[in-house]
């Protein structure tokens, strides 16, 4: 079945490509339906049964993923066979026991769609919730929370959307929309400075970030006034010194701390004056937000 116009609009408003989202939803549904239809539901639920279902939170957090839930319902139920009676807004904080989505639809199709819809909703809401916790931890410092490419295969765009819902910022989406010079590039080029120069010559219009592993490497790249430097596995006191050196040599350069960061120490790093914290854990290991379907 095709996505409805309303679902398509909601996906686009979230920055999610409708065609890509449809492919994702179809693939997720195929995992449940590859061996045939929902045998348990067909055995126990009348084909004429219709009910109102609520997606209810069990714990508090930040919501993300409702446009994809509606895409699942469009595919399984059919856009003209269910009615949305209530829908919360992605990015909203939610408490335990809240209904974030209420729909009325045939029960068989609701139960068939349930797990796929919840898998997407709970995971993306978990990413948004984790991001919001990091954002709160650095509140008032001016430091920003950014994600990485450490995303689950096939879920990068939705996960990065969830990061935005939680108040975080997106790093690059792929290998061609920005350049990030890492240790292996440095090894190939001979030095951080040489790698930086090579990248500028190759693609002068692309955003460019360079990773440094110590203060000596930082000094080398600061002479070229890069837009962004990633401080890899720097301790807070090293970050503070990096901020001082950058301010003296290249004040327009932003500094991003990465590696070994924990939520408990986020405020310590933010207080050093770095501009961003790069947090891979937002997408590679965020716990789900507990949400269930009740009828």
TrEMBL record:
Known catalytic reactions: nicotinate beta-D-ribonucleotide + CO2 + diphosphate = quinolinate + 5-phospho-alpha-D-ribose 1-diphosphate + 2 H(+)
All copies of domain Quinolinate phosphoribosyl transferase N-terminal, residue ranges: 38-125
EC main group: transferase
Record domain Quinolinate phosphoribosyl transferase C-terminal: where: 127-294
Keywords assigned: Glycosyltransferase, Pyridine nucleotide biosynthesis, Transferase
E.C. numbers: 2.4.2.19
Family: Belongs to the NadC/ModD family.
Signal sequence range: none
InterPro entries noted in UniProt: Aldolase_TIM (IPR013785), NadC (IPR004393), NadC/ModD (IPR027277), Nicotinate_pribotase-like_C (IPR036068), Quinolinate_PRibosylTase_N_sf (IPR037128), Quinolinate_PRibosylTrfase_C (IPR002638), Quinolinate_PRibosylTrfase_N (IPR022412)
KW Transferase (keyword) present: yes
GO process annotations (BP): NAD+ biosynthetic process; quinolinate catabolic process
CDD domains in the cross-refs: QPRTase
Protein name: Nicotinate-nucleotide pyrophosphorylase [carboxylating]
GO molecular function, one term: nicotinate-nucleotide diphosphorylase (carboxylating) activity
Pathway linked to the protein: Cofactor biosynthesis; NAD(+) biosynthesis; nicotinate D-ribonucleotide from quinolinate: step 1/1
Function summary: Involved in the catabolism of quinolinic acid (QA).
Pfam families: QRPTase_C, QRPTase_N
Stored NCBIfam families: nadC
Originating species: Actinopolyspora mortivallis
One cellular-component annotation, GO: cytoplasm
Domain of life of the organism encoding this protein: Bacteria
């Amino acid at each position: 079945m095709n996505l409805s116009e309303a679902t398509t609009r909601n996906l686009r408003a979230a920055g999610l490509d409708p065609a890509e989202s449809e492919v994702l939803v179809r693939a997720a549904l195929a995992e449940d339906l590859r061996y045939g239809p929902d045998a348990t539901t067909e055995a126990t639920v009348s084909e004429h049964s219709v009910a109102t279902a609520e997606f209810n939170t069990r714990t508090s957090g930040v919501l993300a993923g409702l446009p994809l839930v509606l895409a699942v319902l469009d595919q399984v139920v059919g856009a003209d066979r269910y009615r949305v009676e209530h829908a919360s807004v992605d990015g909203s904080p939610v408490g335990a026991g809240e209904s974030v989505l209420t729909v009325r639809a045939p029960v068989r199709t609701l139960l068939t769609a349930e797990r796929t819809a919840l898998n997407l909703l709970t995971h993306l809401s978990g990413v948004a919730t984790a991001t919001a916790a990091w954002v709160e931890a650095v509140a008032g410092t001016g430091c920003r929370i950014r994600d990485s490419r450490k995303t689950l295969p096939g879920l990068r765009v939705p996960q990065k959307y969830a990061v935005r819902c939680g108040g975080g910022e997106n790093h690059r989406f792929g290998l061609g929309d920005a350049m990030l010079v890492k240790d292996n590039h440095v090894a190939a080029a001979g030095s951080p400075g040489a790698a930086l120069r090579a990248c500028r010559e190759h693609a002068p219009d692309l955003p460019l970030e360079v990773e440094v592993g110590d203060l000596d490497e930082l000094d080398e790249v600061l002479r070229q006034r890069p837009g962004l430097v990633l401080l890899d596995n720097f301790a807070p006191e090293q970050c503070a010194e990096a901020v001082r050196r950058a301010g003296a040599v290249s004040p327009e350069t932003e500094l991003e701390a990465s590696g070994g960061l924990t939520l408990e120490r986020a405020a310590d790093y933010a207080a050093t004056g770095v501009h961003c914290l790069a947090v891979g854990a937002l997408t590679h290991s965020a716990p789900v937000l507990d949400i269930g379907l009740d009828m």
